[in-house]
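To whoever picks this up:

The parser on our side crashed when reading a file containing two proteins. I've narrowed it down to the boundary between the first structure block and the second sequence. Both blocks are reproduced below exactly, byte for byte. First block:
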Amino acid sequence: MKLTCLSKGDGFHFPPCHILIICGFRILLECPVDLSALTIFSPVPSDFHTVLDEENSDHAAQDSLNAETVCWKRQKAEKPLEAKNLIYAEPWYKTVKNLHLWNVSFIDIVVISSPMGMLGLPFLTRVTGFSAKIYVTEATARLGQLMMEDLVSMHMEFRQFYGFEESGFPQWMDRKELELLPSALREIVFGKDGEELGSWMPLYSAADVEDCMGKVQTLRFGEEACYNGTLTMKAFSSGLEIGACNWTINGPRRNFLSMERENVHSSTPLTTDSSNLGDGNSNSEEFIKSLLNIDESLEEMEKLAFVCSCAVDSVKGGGSVLISINRIGLVLQLLEQMSIFLESSTLKVPIYIISSIGEELLSFTNIIPEWLCEHRQQKLFSGEPLFAHVELIKEGKIHLHPAVHSPILLSNWQEPCIVFAPHWTLRLGPVVHLLRRWCGDQRSLLVLESGVDADMALLPFKPVAMKILQCSFLSGIKSQKIQPLLKILQPKLVVLPEYLRQEVTCSSTILFSVFHFSDKETLRIPSLKDSSEVEIATKASQLKWRKLKKKGMKITRLEGELLMNQSRYLLFPAKMTTSSKQRTSLLHMGSPNLERLLTMLSNMNVSGSLEQRMGESDNVGVIHVHDPYKALIEVGATSTVITSADEKLAGLIFKAIDSIMEGI
């Protein structure tokens, strides 16, 4: 088995990506997009004439450039970044940096764990020759599809502003243009090692998304999928997000558990299924429950409460609140908490959700109880909505609109207000227009999630007077819990990224081997099994077993068809007729002892002499038979040859060899 790290990822929005080779099959684990790289582009400008003047001045300067002026411009670019340093063009999107180096037609399986991990799938599925099987949970598939459709919809504003690009590379990707960028932007474009320019791609279309989803096979938690009869894959909840999961991949000689990110406790998605982690006994389940830190859960709830209290304070001061958070689970909890805080403060403030997929997304979350935590599922049995937004929309406290220019929104707009709007990069979507409206208002509040450089994200909107609140929410199991969790799992081998080397320390109590991998490196993982198990579709009593004298084991000979099903070898014996049984010859193991063979031949009234060459083994040589007829027995290291003109004599010699050797 081999594991290649294509990207170590960067938080919730950009999960890690790996290639796993197991049983000869190549499996791509995750296919995300680095959306944080969009910050090198300017949002759609509000003043087109300013952009034209800037471009014309740049082109005029470019025509008269010489080596001295190029150097001067580079020095000038190292000054603090300004909005004019950004790229004014239709954005391209940065895919996994090393995935473009692989021939995608050689990928057999793609396994997706979360909606963020599938945003790059259409880049793969639109490539000629791609034929891999894609496995994803039902909830992740639907949420991921909505997110991709929303991305395409928001990106269309760039197309409408700049026009459709001609085929080929855009002007901003010209090497000379890129070399003039400030170093901070150049590093995002090229990467720290200067090898990531090839990972930039133009965004896929709505048709590409539809074609991609047609190639996806969806699964429920605990449902098994078998690939080619060899690998069996099963998803179980990771507790990170609705539909997000970890995967078990089982083969005939390998069992692999992929735990990219784990959240043992969750308030919205289904909690981690502990039966897939431990050995299934009560002690393991209790130990896993002991990992549930109530303080962590309270800390997350306190963060949400703090966001809501800050929002209420801003509204009381006459300012509006703009929330640009991507996690659907957090958004649903914030809507509930925000309504409670507003009600307790007696404020009559509208809550707007502005998104092209907002209505469909909220409707979907209220019909998926099997993907939610036990607390949410209990609401279904008691006749309550799964989430509070259902009643809040009916009461007119939450307003859903597909775009900022929606006629209904414009006619009912009211400030101050609280707005949930994408996109978290602050480069596209309704958030851009609202930020331009409120960025100069010191009473207003912008709520961001960690994962984006706030200084660079806010660059096009400076000077910014509004308050900025950037929150960091739990994105998986904390590093100090890795070692206790491994004690529960009791794996044979553990594979960890290099940056976690200090978190799992080897000691005499650890019964597993730990391997570490680095970016762009392929790690060979040794096999722990020297043999494979096979299930024989017949009763053992029907087989003729023979006990080996030296090795103390029983062995039998069987003719049939060897098949693979559900990661297990199956042997179906062939039906043998009487004539076929008679034709079956014995198979012997090892080499006959020459001295014993001479003694056995003598007992059969067959006389001969032994000829051995110097330096050869005692079991390698030639026996010359003199009586009753001449014959030759050549015993080699790997075979024994009987040469005789008399058939009966050859039969006697074979019988003698059979009597002193083990055969089946």
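<<boundary where parser fails>>
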Amino acid sequence: MKIYIKIFIICIWLFSCDSKTNKINLPPYPTINKKLVTENICDTTVNDYYRNLENAEDSLVNNWYKQQGDYASNILSKISGKDGLAKSMQDLSNRKSYRVRRTNIVADDQYFFLKKMPNEKKFKLFYKSGYDGKDEFLYDPNTFKPETKHDYVINYIRPSWNGQYVVVALTYEGREVAEMIIIDMKTKKPLAEIIGSSWAASFYGVDWLPDNSGFTYLHFPNLSKNNKRAKTNTQAVLYKIGQNPKNITPIFSPQNNPELNLDITSYPIVEIDNPNQKYAIGYMVNVSNYFDAYYTEIENLDKKKVNWKPLFTKKDKVYKTACEIKNDTITFKSAYGASNYQIAQTRLSSPDFKSPTIIVPENLDEIIGEFKEMPNSLFFTTTKNGVQAKFYQLDKNEIKEIKLPKESGSISLRSYNNIDLFVTIRGWLNKSERYLYSSNDNKFTYLPLSPIINYPEFKDFIAKEIEVINQDGVNIPLSIIHHKDTELNGKNPVFIYGYGAYGDIEKPAFSPIFLTWVANGGVLCIAHVRGGGEKGEAWHLGGMKLNKPNSWGDLITCTEYLVEKKYSSPEHIALWSSSAGGIMAGRAVTDRPDLFKAVIIDAGVLNPIRREQSYGGSNHKEYGSMKDSIECKGVIAMDAYFHIKENVMYPAILLNAGMNDPRVAPWQSGKFGARLQEVNKSDNPILFHVDYDSGHGNGTTVGKVYDQWANIFSFAFWQTGHPDYQLDKSSLK
């Protein structure tokens, strides 16, 4: 890895020269006959030129997807430096003697975690007794259903409160939808039962009963490929150890509780916070940040008919599942009248979520993040602009800031026994560090879960946090990471990322993969656009539904700033986003194709006009519904596929899609790519990289992750003019 410093010096010199990408005569794209469908939607004529691509079961369409994938793979494989880039990413990761993730700590200081050695492609399940205990191997995903020849990986674990059992969820080829097994710690072997139709890694997992006899989880009764109802009529079910998994026991669902009039597109989950909990809370989860909630005594879950009582509604703006019940006191995080959130309390015997007792008031400069109630006080975190984190304690009605071991971009709080408080801090350039905090002596004890590794190749990098003012006077946070000696000459390759959806915050996190861009002489930027949650609920609302144009408008503003300040120029700027961020990236490139040299979109939402009718789910609550006469206008405005124009010089485009994606249908990328390949007037390549062995980016092997990022970065470097990443034209098929 010492070569990175040399590469950086070389790049400073090379990028001070003009480095436009030479014209490349690529082989013709695979073609398919388009089938135009014209509709009048919301008083707008919508031409859908490639509606036929939505039917991947059609052999002609499926063959076209395969041909597009082969075509893109052939081009990407011919970029010099790509294989070396993938290897350097892997080498950085393998610098640790092992990696650990998904750590769970339960009674008697029992640790359950996933661990991977440098030469392994997958994480395996391990156990140890106590922090200093010896790692004991428990389960290898390669042993699950070997007769299927599927490449299974573990994507979720959850031990019982007493550590007697551990649930392990397994999936393959990016499907995310998982099968769950239960390992009995007495025998260290899986029980015979296999629980299917679950999605534990993404839908709040499983919640063990206090007596460890079973757990609740979300059951998907309609799961099958291309089933438009796959995500509807889901059920929260109770599973008891030894039960036949085919004998489903619903405890909370629209079918089981018709008296509650539950929404069939939301997901009923039942949460049990700790083994001493008296009540279970049932949430109707969807993509919004506020749910309807109900409660019942846990002992009622065994009854044939569970009586759920209303707790609060989404109008009360209790943030997600940030709600704890202890005796008669409910402590919760709320956005009701507080865009930056507040922490409040009310009584279960007479709940009032609109006029509760405020124990931590809203801070107009910082948004409240996580909170954790401990025996004698409450701890909570805040962030400013999503990137500057602080840690506080509420003790006897007094709020005091606790100084962290070092400045942090994000903080997470965990307590496994309601006694020990673990504080984990992260930053763009600071590795994740886990501490045990003692409030008695205000002491942080560093307790890493994996070996401490240094990355000297990143030591001269700097991270700047600025705000860019748009034409309406709105301050948009922008994170910029580069080498301290980077010259602002307008020639640096820039990789800019944004998302702007669901109120998610793009929190600082240390990523050796991302930092390889900077190590190769580039500038890495994160635009914290509206639609995210960096500035609270108002920031989210400012970029959703009819306000969605603010998301790509903010991204464009940040990119223009980078050009104005000579970090780069349009000829050297690559834009990347994924999933719902595809709306922002797709509309940025269709609005301002002149501002970017390359745009890469992974599993992007690019044709939301068709999403609600064809893929189900509750995402219309974020984007807007085509069934609403007002909201549909916003959906049309954010549809990148609809806004592709003829006779326009578009930049280079790389669209990545997995055919097993359970969240965003691959035809969203396919239709967008096909239309661009048809009408683009520039010589820039339009690649549609289809992978039949992946999904939405989750549930896959580590090696595939390196390959995917090597494709993205090498394509971006090629297009932005990096001399080490150029196409071998002589070897093109």
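After patching the parser it read the second block fine. The two ends are 33 Å apart (CA to CA). The longest strand covers residues 318-326.
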